[in-house]
Amino acid sequence: MSELNTLTLAQARDALRKGETTSVALTEACLAAIEGAGALNAFVHKTPEIALERAKAADARLHSGDAPKMCGLPIGIKDLFCTKGVPSQAASHILEGFKPEYESTVSQQLADAGAVMLGKLNMDEFAMGSSNETSCYGNAVNPWRRGNDDAALTPGGSSGGSAAAVAADLCLAATGTDTGGSIRQPAAFVGITGIKPTYGRCSRWGIVAFASSLDQAGPMTKDVRDAAIMLEAMCGHDPKDSTSADLAVPDFEAMLTGDIRGKVIGIPREYRMDGMPEEIEALWQQGTEMLRAAGAEIRDISLPHTKYALPTYYVIAPAEASSNLARYDGVRYGHRAKLAQGDGITEMYEKTRAEGFGHEVQRRVMVGTYVLSAGFYDAYYNRARKVRTLIKKDFEDVFAAGVDAILTPATPSAAFGLGEMAEADPVQMYLNDVFTVTVNLAGLPGVSVPAGLDKQGLPLGLQLIGRPWEEGDLLNTAYALEQAAGFVAKPGKWW
């Protein structure tokens, strides 16, 4: 058998059931890979004792015949998920030393399914970023390289550590969260699969909040089958989360037939942006032809309010962030600044937040507070909410007209170098989300599938957007695209 840490979830699951390996052996292989990959800075809190303890328990469950699909499979958990007794600081100095006394619903469900937690993964601070350069732990690094260039590349953000860890075979899969593309964009940058389910499909309880009406957890995996396996374990109604949908969770893996004959795939004309790289345009065209060849009907569609999506997102998301992050004040938990003689509570708030929050978080809190302020609430926030409704209606109209899924690029480029996007112009960084934010604003499921390489040998992804609550059908279309694309490239090991 090949190196155990390079297996997919499905391969490892089958090997465990056949008795060809053990969860302990799988876990030890991943822990050794993590120790040898410090240059990637993907794992920021390692939990080998917890991992081996859970692996032994999983082996006992497997031996007894009581084994769910995820039993014994080693995974990484994004640092945004609260994990009991393990640092959970959302990559921010303000939560330094915070060890929750509880477990997030999603990580608890994975643990209940027998999954083995290897540790916590790097990310952008409070999930605010598209390059993993805002983390208090330092940059996560993409395992891919451009041709013969040794420049360090971004793994994308905010789930950059998750993306790097899965692509480099440090874990078999990982959790991510997606507020404006933070699962799908990094998945595309490192050549893996990432799905953001319908808003409400996965519980948000115990996940550090960024923008509550947009955040959604999802899996980041080596292929579409693994995404189906892991998503099923992560989903389900949670009475602790008022936005959690009380819907039955289907067997997503059983729905992967690859048969998409008669499905209608929409190609939105508004996603053809000025200045789009030729390689992205060509890949999109190739993906369209692959789905046509698989028996799908291709239909040109219009999503007329797409051009307003990015500014709408960057009003709503910071507004919700400024509200959610008001709780980090140095009073109850996390960092508290040292105060000078005579300082009062206002000075404590100011100093604590100035020390604890990084520049990007401060910027978004200030933008959010501005658009919620008395003089600008109607001009910005209320107007953005109305435009959001129009964006959602665009998708509803298209789906009502018989479209089953929508094919778009996942990102406007391949992975860029760390430090190449200037801090002085944050808007350039925000443009990385141009193809993904509409999905969050409309609450829809979206999946990124690796579909090719650019001329520098870096992975490029395509995005499929599905009908609400129909992740199984969306994953099956993604499976057909994956089969047609035949993407098997892996980064050359340099770390």
Automatic annotation (TrEMBL):
Please indicate which superkingdom the organism of origin belongs to.
Answer: Bacteria
Please provide the record's keywords in A-Z order: ATP-binding, Ligase, Nucleotide-binding, Protein biosynthesis
Question: Which residues are annotated as active site?
Answer: 78 (charge relay system), 158 (charge relay system), 182 (acyl-ester intermediate)
Q: E.C. number, please?
A: 6.3.5.7
Share what the entry says about its subunit structure, partners included: Heterotrimer of A, B and C subunits.
Q: What does this protein do?
A: Allows the formation of correctly charged Gln-tRNA(Gln) through the transamidation of misacylated Glu-tRNA(Gln) in organisms which lack glutaminyl-tRNA synthetase. The reaction takes place in the presence of glutamine and ATP through an activated gamma-phospho-Glu-tRNA(Gln).
Name-wise, this protein is Glutamyl-tRNA(Gln) amidotransferase subunit A
Q: What is the lineage of its organism?
A: Bacteria, Pseudomonadati, Pseudomonadota, Alphaproteobacteria, Rhodobacterales
Q: Which gene encodes it?
A: gatA
